[in-house]
Design a protein that fits this description.
Protein name: MFS transporter
Shape: globular
Keywords: Cell membrane, Membrane, Transmembrane, Transmembrane helix
Distance between the termini: 19 Å
InterPro entries: MFS (IPR011701), MFS_dom (IPR020846), MFS_Efflux_Transporters (IPR050189), MFS_trans_sf (IPR036259)
Largest sheet: none
Subcellular location: Cell membrane
Number of strands: 0
CATH class of the largest domain: Mainly Alpha
Oligomer: single chain
Organism: Pelomonas lactea
Number of helices: 17
Length: 400
């Protein structure tokens, strides 16, 4: 008996929360203790994290192809083990070489175990009807920073940074692995899968220019998201936010992401995802302008706007390729579309750190400009006409 879609969403969303909290959101809390203990500069720790993102970019298309053929269950179960190995290696690092080696292993896990893999797993199971499930797992995993930052800080306070990494590794084996094992088995396919509703006609493939615009949108938005994930506490402190409020306000990113996703799931779900993506792309520039003009009093508004926009755009990264290209070969195509984004992510902590060092909070003007370029790219992608959009929106709705 196949598990219900709600159970799949709950288990996969919880596993994604663990995966994001213990990888993507780890350096913001542990970079300082790591650099002090290992005797390396703080930027070196972020450089190792950037190497992990490069590795994840290269792994993504290969992982997507495996999910297209076998389904997500075996791939995601394997990445739970790889996450645990990488975190264990990080906990035992003794210098820069072992630090970078640990992050290379974590990069393998990130490239085959974060959202792109989860989205591909859902499309492999549900085809055109995966939009609701994609939104569902992002609703659950939207709390990754809210859970991850304070929990990592608490573990570091009680066990040290090495103990914190070891604890996260143990959680992958005892919690993440069983959760991923709850995914339904998918039929192995020798050719590219067509997913649910395979007999229905596929939407025509967009021209190459549309794919290029979409890749640019993903690259820019992930650059901004990664830069803020790594440097948000320092950025808030730089505009004069009280030290005791920095983490508390930063933790609002998670609830704001969930709020944005609820908006997409409720009011916007019947519209083509281009509409919600365009609205979301405007939120970071608006929040950045408020923060730069008003300073610390606008910190909460900035975090809420940035988080809500990031939450909706995360869904768009899964639903836009599905809406424009269809489910056939989704995993491999998603890996290719996200490759520039992953490379942009790899540079984001380092480059934005340099911008912060040179410009202070005014570095937000740069991230706001990049976000506006993403909005421009989304506006250049043709919105389907009412006749074209009607069958598409019907196939993307989650069945009652």
């Amino acid at each position: 008996m196949q598990p219900s879609r709600a159970r799949v969403v709950a288990s996969l969303g919880s596993a994604q929360t663990l995966a994001w909290a213990s990888s993507y959101y780890l350096p913001a809390m542990l970079a300082g203790p790591m650099s002090n203990d290992l005797g390396v500069a703080r930027p070196t720790v972020f450089a190792a994290f950037s190497v992990a993102l490069v590795v994840s970019a290269l792994v993504g298309p290969h992982s997507g192809r495996r999910i297209d053929r076998w389904g997500g269950r075996p791939v995601l179960m394997a990445t739970s083990v790889i996450f645990a190995v990488g975190l264990a290696l990080l906990a035992t690092a003794t210098g820069p070489v072992s630090l970078f080696a640990a992050w290379v292993v974590l990069g393998l896990a990130m490239g085959s175990g974060l959202y792109e893999a989860a989205f591909a797993s859902l499309v492999r199971l549900y085809g055109h009807e995966a939009r609701g499930a994609i939104t569902g797992i992002t609703l659950v995993a939207g709390f990754a920073s809210t859970v991850g930052w304070p929990l990592t800080a608490a573990l570091e306070h009680g066990l040290g940074w090495r103990g914190a990494c070891g604890a996260w590794a143990l959680l992958h084996l005892t919690v993440g692995l069983p959760l991923n094992a709850l995914l339904p088995r998918a039929e192995r396919l020798a050719l590219r899968p067509t997913g649910t509703g395979a007999d229905a006609p596929e939407p025509p493939a967009p021209p190459l220019g549309v794919a290029a615009l979409l890749a640019w949108v993903f690259a820019v938005t992930w650059f901004v998201s990664t830069a803020l994930a790594a440097h948000l506490p320092n950025l808030l402190a730089g505009v004069g936010t009280a030290p005791g409020l920095v983490i508390a306000i930063g933790m609002l990113v998670g609830p704001a992401q969930v709020g944005g996703r609820l908006l997409e799931f409720g009011l916007l779900r019947r519209l083509h995802p281009l509409y919600s993506a365009r609205m979301a792309a405007l939120m970071h520039p608006l929040g950045a302008a408020l923060l730069l003009l008003l300073g610390a009093p606008a910190a909460t508004a900035f975090v809420l706007l940035h988080g809500a926009g990031n939450g909706i755009l995360t869904i768009a990264k899964g639903t836009l390729p599905l809406a424009l290209f269809g489910p056939t070969g989704y995993g491999h195509r998603q890996g290719l579309l996200m490759l520039p984004a992953r490379l942009g992510q790899a540079l984001a902590p380092w480059l934005f750190g340099l911008l912060l060092a040179a410009l202070g909070p005014r570095a937000l003007w740069v991230s706001a400009g990049l976000a506006l370029s993403a909005l421009t790219a989304l506006l250049l992608i043709r919105t389907p006409s009412r006749e074209d959009d009607k069958p598409l929106s019907t196939t993307l709705q989650e069945p009652a």
